[in-house]
Design a protein that fits this description.
The strands form 3 sheets. Strands 1-2-3-4-5-7-10-11 form an 8-stranded parallel barrel, surrounded by 5 helices. It has a 3-stranded mixed β-sheet with strand order 6-8-9. It has a two-stranded antiparallel sheet with strand order 12-13. Helix 4 packs across helix 16, helix 8 runs parallel beside helix 10 and helix 9 runs antiparallel to helix 10. It has 16 helices and 13 strands. It has 479 residues and is an alpha/beta fold.
Amino acid sequence: MTRSVDDPRRVEKSHQFDLPFTRDDFGPEFTWGVASAAFQVEGAWDEDGKRPSVWDEACLRGRVRGGRACLDGIDAYHRLDQDLDLLSALGIGAYRFSINWPRVFGDGRGPWNPAGASYYDRLIDGCLARGIEPWVTVHHWDMPMALEREGGWLRRATVDDFATFAAEVARHYGDRVKHWMVMNEPLSIVGHAFLGVHRRRSGLYPMAALATLHHLNLACAEGARRMREVLPQDAKIGVTHVFTLAWPYDRVGRGARARRAIDALLVDAFLDPAAGLGYPFAICPPLRPIRRFVVDGDEELARFDYDFVGVQYYGPVPTRPARLVGVLPRATVPSAEARVRSGVGVPVDPDGLLEVLRRYRSHPACRRFVITESGFGMNDRPGEDGRIRDDIRIWYARTHLERVLAAKREGIPVDGFFQWSWADNVEWLFGRSVRFGLVYIDYEDDFRRIPKDSYYWFRAFLGGETVASATVSEARRGR
């Protein structure tokens, strides 16, 4: 058992004077928030009528590190008020969370489950009562297992199943939620299909990945259209994508064409169809076999004019020139300040965030940017005094915020930043082994919540209220 955390005011004071900018520099309309995903935090995987998702099944099959224990998430389902009080004290203006598809919509096609759906009513109302704006992600990877058994995203009919679900979510919560993300990181779902994460046998499945990619593009657009039909006129609908680039960022010279093909595969393959441009076959030949899944009219069906695009940036894809194949991935990238990789192996380069914003600022699908995920994963632990010193996470946030501010000063329309994540959680296949949170979760002691140095640093920067000692004490006891 660790001793009590130092006075949070001392933690805040130690970090509040090392910034070359202030919150005011970003402007009064800039949105500051934190983010999470349903599977990663909620737990209660089989309560109140919830049906299994593909990630529940992955835990049960031992595909997630930690196995069945990860089904509990961080028990957010049972600690809603405590967690919202921690978020309120942080000083954020918005909380981004996702709706668990099989919690509210059974095996994927309904009927609507009032018992499970009431959790999101309480979450939304709890945010609003504390002056926090709810930003809702409709789908963050938790495909109902029943639909997966029918083929999941390999099956074109799943597009309609998803769009029906999206419309129902919008209909039930649209009276209180003004900002929506129809889907989180389609590229990652494509990656799961490529690696066979949810198949009985893992392996490489390139055609399954291409089918998934095309059906996700259709699903995002169709889901957004049906949401638009039922939402108030002032509602904003966006989508979040992985934004990453092949490093070095040169646009000419050796390997430039091959690097551009990588960029197109990872980013343009999603942005171009949304803008009505079709797929970038000319610059990315590996995409060409996707034509077997495309039918007449799909170019228009994949098109949707999103109000904003969420930028999910963690780092670049380092590459090196190679004969015959152009470029190949390599391990790391030199940064101006350090050579650092996160706990999930992503190299850190803050300049890459500014580069992607510059490169895609004129893309017709990107009328407005919001940084919907940015954060650093590591294996931090409390010290002997109970304090969690995560200076590298603070450094990561500071350097990336510097680039966001530089982009704004260049006139790039970026007007929001969401830290990933507000608390440690189940990091998908990595389980509990990698921590991204501003708040430490003690899995060995009833999911105690312990704010880290980064939590106090953000609170000082954002000007949040001081957490009363009783509140912190209750948080530590997990009550």
